[in-house]
């Protein structure tokens, strides 16, 4: 059984609110509150079981117990590469290698990130439920965050919906790009293909990609660019950059040119979000993988160091950060969990 206990002291300005109103303000979904109502001892106020309609008093101690009886039993453990950047009782941040799908799918049942995570927890003798909050294509490397329980999943999903999870990518593209640019072409499914996407001005979904050039490898005719997205369409970066004449080499769908690299050189380099329980800003970076670092021009040592190329492990979290636009919703000290048991 998976168990997480969170204890809150009700601040003065929250007195009179119902349990559900208070918890919803901390990122709990209505569905999660219903789950807690149906869990014996799921919601305690002053040590006594209460309904979600119970009105709280200033200084009162509210205890929430998150339990899940059924772990992810249908994901077989597999000993695969797994680089853990950060872990606590609520989240797991990993640096995914290229070539590993995030989720099991047809043709990929035992070689995914889910199988690697299952193996990691099996070695520790801990149950787990696999919840990857964001996705990366199979051949895209880099950072993503996993929620370890239902509250983390609710909070991070809400941040995704409000675009408060910020990610910055690095990519090598063919040709010399402008110093910076924005691509806003709508993206739709390519005719006759289940996988491939294309620019579709009539029926495509809105999409927006911002990029800036960091350096240019004249010998290989490749630009290293930094990208951020305002939308999250399938293959968005790959389609948008190809549409403006700067495809990612090694991309089997949009630029099958394998002379310099055998996969699309796309890396989720930087990840920022608010911790789903404490509300603290979190920031992580992952070093440029070796196959992409090999595309840097000679004399780019400073850039390589800045990008962390060749480091064994990514940089960890830094807590003293400015909140993202729209802000984290940090919990006040009196509302932050006083203790936690797992």
TrEMBL record:
Keywords: Isomerase. Residues 312-342 are annotated as: Disordered. It comes from the Bacteria. Its EC number is 5.4.99.-. Residues 90-243 form the Pseudouridine synthase RsuA/RluA-like domain. GO terms for molecular function: catalytic activity, acting on RNA; pseudouridine synthase activity; RNA binding. The active site is at 137. It catalyses: a uridine in RNA = a pseudouridine in RNA. InterPro entries: PsdUridine_synth_cat_dom_sf, PsdUridine_synth_RluC/D, PsdUridine_synth_RsuA/RluA, RluA_PseudoU_synthase. Responsible for synthesis of pseudouridine from uracil. PANTHER family: MITOCHONDRIAL RNA PSEUDOURIDINE SYNTHASE (PTHR21600), PSEUDOURIDINE SYNTHASE (PTHR21600:SF35). This is Pseudouridine synthase.
């Amino acid at each position: 059984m998976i168990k997480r206990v969170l204890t809150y002291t009700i601040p003065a300005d929250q007195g009179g609110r119902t349990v559900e109103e208070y918890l919803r303000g901390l990122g709990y979904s209505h569905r999660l509150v219903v789950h807690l109502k149906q869990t014996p001892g799921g919601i305690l106020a002053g040590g006594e079981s209460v309904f979600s309609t119970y009105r709280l008093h200033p200084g009162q101690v509210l205890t929430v117990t998150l339990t899940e009886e059924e772990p992810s039993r249908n994901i077989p453990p597999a000993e695969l590469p797994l680089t853990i950047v950060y872990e606590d009782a609520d989240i797991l941040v990993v640096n995914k290698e290229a070539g590993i799908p995030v989720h099991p799918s047809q043709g990929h049942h035992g070689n995914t990130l889910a199988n690697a995570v299952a193996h990691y927890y099996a070695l520790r003798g801990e149950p787990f439920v696999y919840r990857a909050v964001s996705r990366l294509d199979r051949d895209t490397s880099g950072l993503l965050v996993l929620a370890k329980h239902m509250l983390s999943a609710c909070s991070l999903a809400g941040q995704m919906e409000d675009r408060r999870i910020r990610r910055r990518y690095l990519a090598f593209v063919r040709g010399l790009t402008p110093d910076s640019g924005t691509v806003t072409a709508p993206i739709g499914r390519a005719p006759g293909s289940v996988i491939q996407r294309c620019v579709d001005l009539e029926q495509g979904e809105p999409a927006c990609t911002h990029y800036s050039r960091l350096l240019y490898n004249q010998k290989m005719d490749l630009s290293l660019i930094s990208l951020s997205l305002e939308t999250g369409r399938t293959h968005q970066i790959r389609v948008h950059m190809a549409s403006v004449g700067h495809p990612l080499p090694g991309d089997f769908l949009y630029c099958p040119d394998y002379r310099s690299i055998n996969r699309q050189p796309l890396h989720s380099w930087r990840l920022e979000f608010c911790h789903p329980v404490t509300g603290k800003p979190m920031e992580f970076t992952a070093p440029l993988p070796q196959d992409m670092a090999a595309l840097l021009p000679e004399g780019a040592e400073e850039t390589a160091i800045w990008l962390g190329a060749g480091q064994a492990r990514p940089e960890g979290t830094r807590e003293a950060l400015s909140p993202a636009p729209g802000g984290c919703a940090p919990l006040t000290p009196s509302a932050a969990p006083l203790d936690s048991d797992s």
